[in-house]
Amino acid sequence: MTATQEKDDSLKQAREQALCQYEVIDEMITRLAMAKDDDEREAIEQEIQETSLEVSVRDGWHAQGEEAEGPEEYLILLCTGGPAVRIIGDLENGIPSTARLECQSWFTPWTEVCEGVDRVILRDYARQFYFKC
What we know:
Blueprint: H1 3-33, H2 38-49, E1 54-58, E2 73-79, E3 84-92, E4 95-96, E5 100-104, E6 111-112, H3 119-126
Antiparallel strand pairs: 1-2, 2-3, 3-4, 3-5, 5-6
């Protein structure tokens, strides 16, 4: 097997892992939307909070000495290693406005997973986290 074939196989496995993560997210967001009462909703929200390994934000560019207006981008790390999966996107007033599912494996760059992924579901999932600094 050549190095290129190994990279392709590794990235294929990373995409498969990302789609498995997405299926779990889709199922949780569907259950959240159908929750019958506050207790069920809180239990699902807690479950969602426990699915991430890390939640990070970062500010954009601004002039030296200027105070940042708050975070502009977010990252939710779902799993690490080979493969790794994350959701990234933009924030507007601390609320996710976009969401992209990305994966990577050893020695491969982060790659967006588009096929079979609904960005609205990802955004709704991301909105379950708190992004204010």
